[in-house]
Amino acid sequence: TGEFDTVQSPSTPIKDLDERTCRSSGSKSRGRGRKNNPSPPPDSDLERVFVWDLDETIIVFHSLLTGSYAQKYGKDPPMAVTLGLRMEEMIFNLADTHLFFNDLEECDQVHIDDVSSDDNGQDLSTYSFATDGFHAAASSANLCLPTGVRGGVDWMRKLAFRYRRVKELYNTYKNNIGGLLGPAKRDAWLQLRAEIEALTDSWLTNALKSLSIISTRSNCVNVLVTTTQLIPALAKVLLYSLGGAFPIENIYSATKIGKESCFERIMQRFGRKVVYVVIGDGVEEEQAAKKHNMPFWRISSHSDLLALHQALELEYL
Q: Does the record bear Transcription regulation in its keywords (predicted)?
């Protein structure tokens, strides 16, 4: 199944990816089981893996900050930049306050479970992250070197505890980030989201339509590969209400290893029998898709998102 043409434009939907249609077959409970256990066994009924880019594909963020979105679509540049800066502040605030970004910025991982083997499974309900000495040890010894050489067993266990807590928080609040933010910040967040949606002509709403179609199918799965570091990427996913579409185990950060290596990890995980479809706006994911003979669906405008949604509705994809 490796002989697919790269799709140059969504005006030519990928009709013949595979003779099997990606129809939601089987019971609902099986679909839900997939989300709770996002690593399906090799003999599962998984047929298609949709590998998404985040910025400028699902969400408009970076191009707000640079002003390029405003230029392209004739919007007010200062307003766009202000909205981008407000969202950026909210992302890093969430990452620092709740997701240990101060501790983990220099200890970035590709995937949430990458250090789980160092976790001894102890109960963290009364554990004091603030006083366990992790941050001081990390900054004094520069323990998170890019080479992967890191601290001792005790320190690695504390690192693993932080990633476990991040995972718990994500799973608890993925459909209710307002509950984590608290009333005042929740109102500010809802207001900001509404303003961004208005300025971007419902970009995210359109992307979410496609994501939810895929999520409801028992034989398809959404995977996210982003160049954002893992912790801020999780903050973005939560603040843009994407937690329902992406189980935390399906989120990969390409900051350290690049998208092509992430794609290889994803293929090792889901196997070679499934069809991979890459959806993105950038050259890096397009080239990585080409290298692995994965069809690529380019998103560069609202019409591309609408065409993607239509192709999914008609079950071409």
A: yes
Is residue 271 domain-resident?
A: yes
pTM for the whole structure:
0.84
Q: Which of 5, 16, 45, 55 is catalytic?
A: 55
Number of domains, the chain: 1
**Can you give the pLDDT at residue 142?**
55
Provide the residue range defining the domain that includes 303. Answer: 48-113+177-314
The reply to whether 97 falls in a domain is yes
Write the CATH number for 238: 3.40.50.12350
Q: Is position 38 within any domain?
A: no
Q: Binding site for Mg(2+): which residues? A: 53, 55, 281
d(CA 288, CA 252): 15
Print the SS3 string covering the chain: CCCCCCCCCCCCCCCCCCCCCCCCCCCHHHHHHHHHCCCCCCCCCCCEEEEECCECCCECCHHHHHCHHHHHHCCCHHHHHHHHHHHHHHHHHHHHHHCCHHHHCCCCCCCCCCCHHHCCCCCCCCCCHHHCCHHHHHHHHCCCCCCCCCCCHHHHHHHHHHHHHHHHHHHHHCCCHHHHHCHHHHHHHHHHHHHHHHHCCCHHHHHHHHHHHHHHCCCEEEEEEECCCHHHHHHHHHHCCCCCCCCHHHEEECCCCHHHHHHHHHHHHHCCCCEEEEEECCHHHHHHHHHCCCCEEECCCHHHHHHHHHHHHCCCC
Which pLDDT score is estimated for 29? Answer: 36
Q: Are 291 and 303 in contact (CB under 8 A)?
A: no
pLDDT for the residue numbered 35: 37
- Mean pLDDT for 116-131 is 95
Active-site residue identified among 53, 103, 108, 304: 53
Question: Is 5 marked active-site?
Answer: no
